[in-house]
Amino acid sequence: MKQGHNKRERKETKQVRAGNLLIGGDAPVSVQSMTNIPLEDVKGTIEQIKQLERKGAELVRLAVRKEENVSHLKKIISAVNVPLCADIHFNHRIAVESIKAGINKVRINPGNIGSPERVKEVVRAANDNGIPVRIGVNGGSIDKKKYSNVTPENLVESAIEHVQILEDNNFNDIVVSIKSSDVFMNIAANRLFSDKRDYPLHIGLTEAGFGTSCIIDSSVTIGHLLMQGLGDTIRVSMTGDPVEEITIGKKILESVGERFPAVKIISCPTCGRTDPELNILKIARDLESAVCSEFEQILIEKNHMLTLAVMGCEVNGPGEASEADFGLAGARHGEMLLFAKGEKSARVKSDEAVFALIKEIRKYVSTQLCK
Ligand code: SF4
């Protein structure tokens, strides 16, 4: 199956560049995360950034809390390839020094960086070094003196107020994030902001929790916005290992057709019709892992997706299995039917099914993709 079969309409935003990563405009939606190790632990931070990069992170953010951290930052920048964003609050000098150290993007909140003169210094440094600035407004840190309660309108007004400070300094390489831990508030605020400005949007829930609820709330929020054409870079905020954030973020992008996996497994939940001798979950997992280890690289190179169905019985199984590129459908007595490109090709014992299907896929890849 070819890429791009269900591409969504996307709002055209201004494009900015962070290192080798383009954000906004016609650039693909990127996935990012943030380290959760103090910068003083240079070795650990470098290792975590590399893990994130291996998993597919396209930008990694780091909290730079103290001026002394800039020396750590320099070592980290020289040791990794993925673009880095420095997250800075309260002290404009840290932002300026991080920019001079070679950071690819800064995230600030102009409201807490100090006087207009200080904001101007950060903007001048960003301009001189050609890096974008992300304005991040969060429900939890909105100015309580100014805004008595957190509403989408107040979040957007606060964001616009901050954006205006940069615009007043003739700076437009801006990325905006407006986050709340509430799904509805988050979606409404991003839609409202998008009606007012064309800057690229960094989207995601903030303080989204952990585990299943975080995955579902983040997927609903990010997925909903993406399907409405909003969002240029995403971050799933999850308590725990940031590497997980990348795995989930990439899956969300696949769900909305923004990316496509090399291998897509279609499997049924099984029911009382499944022959008790068949372990459909194990077969589906074994098939995915065998196909990925042998063919994933070539599928990525050829920009090709394989759909593989693993179905529990002969009622719905043959239909789905023949719709997919390759498939297995449970039969009786621990046997399975094999399907290749819509045709039933064999009936085998279940413990031979994965091996037999791999042989069919190998034939297809060598004759059709590698000719
Ligand atoms: S494909 Fe068959 S085994 Fe699977 S859920 Fe449907 S009816 Fe049940």
Which whole number gives the mean pLDDT?
Answer: 93
The main sheet orders its strands as: 8-7-6-5-4-3-10-9
Number of separate strands: 15
Separation, N- and C-terminal Cα atoms? 17 Å
Radius of gyration computed on alpha carbons:
24 Å
Ligand inventory reads:
iron/sulfur cluster
The portion of residues forming beta strands comes to: 15-25%
Shape, principal axes of CA atoms = elongated
Helix content: 40-55%
What string, H for helix and E for strand, traces the elements in order? EEEHEHEHEHHEHEHEHEHEHEHEEEH
Descriptive notes:
The chain is α/β, with parallel strands linked by helices. Helix content is about 45%, strand content about 20%. The strands form 3 sheets. Strands 8-7-6-5-4-3-10-9 form an 8-stranded parallel beta sheet. It has a 5-stranded mixed beta sheet with strand order 11-12-13-14-15, sandwiched between helices. The chain has a two-stranded antiparallel sheet with strand order 1-2. It is elongated and about 75 Å long. The two termini are about 15 Å apart. Mean pLDDT is about 95; it is low at about 1-5.
Secondary structure layout plus pairing:
Layout: E1 16-18, E2 21-23, E3 30-34, H1 42-55, E4 59-63, H2 69-79, E5 84-87, H3 92-100, E6 105-108, H4 110-113, H5 116-129, E7 133-138, H6 152-168, E8 174-179, H7 183-196, E9 202-203, H8 211-227, E10 233-234, H9 242-255, E11 263-267, H10 280-301, E12 306-311, H11 317-323, E13 326-330, E14 335-340, E15 343-349, H12 350-369
Parallel strand pairs: 3-4, 3-10, 4-5, 5-6, 6-7, 7-8, 9-10, 11-12, 12-13
Antiparallel strand pairs: 1-2, 13-14, 14-15
Helix pairs in contact: 1-2, 1-9, 3-5, 6-7, 7-8, 8-9, 10-12
The chain binds iron/sulfur cluster.
Iron/sulfur cluster binds next to loops.
